[in-house]
Amino acid sequence: MKIYFKYSCIIIAIWSFTSCKKYLDVTPDNIGTLDYAFRNRNEAQNYLYSCYAYLQRMNDVATNPGFTTSSELIYSNSLDNFQGFNRTGFNLLRGTQTAANPGLNAWDGSEGSYSLWRSIRICNTMLENIDQPIDLSAAEKKRWIAETKFLKAYYHYVLFKMYGPIPLIKTNLAINSTTDEVRVKRSSVDEVVDYIVSLLDEATPDLPPNITSQATELGRVTSVISLSVKADVLATAASPLFNGNPDYASFKDKEGASLFPLVYDLQKWNKAALAAKAAITAAETQGVKLYVFNSPSTVGKLSDSIKRELDVQNAVTEKWELNPEVIWASNPEFNYQGHSTPRLTAKSAVNAFSNPSTFSAPISTQELFYTVNGVPITEDKTWDYAGRNTIKTGDNASRYYIQQGYETIKGHFAREARFYADVAFDGGVWFGNGRNNQDDPANPLYFVSARGSGFAAPSDNIRLNITGYWPKKLVSYASVYDDGFQPSPFRLPLIRLAGLYLLYAEALNEVNGPTAEVFTYIDKVRQRAGLQGVQASWTNYSKTPNKFSTKDGLRQIIHQERRIELCFEGQSGWDLRRWKELQAVLSNPIQGWSINNADAINYYRPTTQFIPVFGLKDYLWPIKSYDLVVNPNLVQNPYW
Q1: What span is annotated as the signal peptide, if there is one (predicted)?
Q2: How far is it, in rounded angstroms, from Cα 473 to Cα 572?
Q3: What angle (nearest 5°) sits at the alpha carbon of residue 134, between those of residues 133 and 138?
């Protein structure tokens, strides 16, 4: 598509407008080129696309801390940038983060990331020069200004999520700025949030509600996207990490001003709830709705089990332009389907470059998903949690999820549909990969054989899944890995309606506790997954049947619901940070199965891959030590 091509090509042009300084580079270079860049509408449009360009680069999952530091997935430490994959983000959980050389350094643009200050500077330059093109219509000018303000807000927001209180670069500094003027200071959390929200509020009215020309403009910002990001910003600001966090009570700038709010403010949750409801209303007005799989002619008859699995899986892997649930998706296309797919055929087993199979979900990730009764496996009074790792053979009742006659574990049985849609495991049935008819005896559905001489079993120390679980959710059923790779491309959602529903439910619960409206929005998501509502599920099956009746209990339910629904989408890592729950999640060893054993009895023994390194200081990224020397007005984040 034209717009995607321009986004890719314009990255090269950006470098002519940027410099390589090691700290907040806010003074524009190459001033002589600006007149040319804005001499007419076409050149100015190219510059607009340059404002988008870093959005494209930072949304590669390898550079997204919400994806790599969530512990939902891990990556083998023995793979040294296999196929050029940058594992810097995954390695942060192994204790590689330092103030001397931070990983995924979005402040300076190093160690696997890109400088978002540079992106903000480009946006400021766009706003400062938008009046120059004489052939730019008034309508386009309003839209371009709005898009640029949105992008400027979003880049500030990503920096805020990583670093907390940050400097606000409202305008570019003059070329003759003094040293003191260049040495910017950090603004407080509330000041940063207020500024980001003000930019979004200014942008929203002048953005189109939807993209009518998808062939040329899909990927550009809409008012629904802007409203949804605003809700996310306000929910983050209302969450425990930023709202009256006692761990940062003494965090001040060089002049003694507090950088974090000292007192918890419930009204911040009320603002988040109002913003989320406004975003939902705007989205639904534009026809956004929860995805339901509509079988194409290439798919045979579907059982209810597989149909429900595809409802969930395709909510992520369906093409953006065909997916009514996606509000905003990433650029570029998701390029890691081969990393997420177990090898299912003899030919794929020897095709390391197409099917490396290296994205690994720990045991803790699969245990996050509910039982078939819609409650946690630790709470379901009908489910054998203590015996979950004992051997059980696939039977006829579970034939659409687990291979009949194959030995796996009891814990893989009687799980909710999202478990089977999201996670591939030894013995698990795989609908797709060229076999889309569940009842074709000549071409039965593939299943994962991860032990002994199975196609998905380790064949060397490079092409292996180190836990025995794969993120099936990140692979389209229509993609085929065999002798080569026939992709069915998709763009990983950044915001989809199910996540917005759960964000609204979360904010409402924080304001008012359990109410009918809270349950309505949680249950919309659960219903698509084939589950009963929260109240019915907990009442009938949970060992704590009244858990949903208190704000604290319902909060736990909503948090787990979000982690399940948005698993592997680059969201849970950010959620766990804002909730201040990531340290607890990472307090246990990261484990997988004993993947080099052929017999089930020996394979299904938990083995530790590594002990996570995550302390209180890791909730915020360190500013590189060098930057503190260059700019003495900056203060380091606490505990670094």
Answers
A1: none
A2: 15
A3: 90
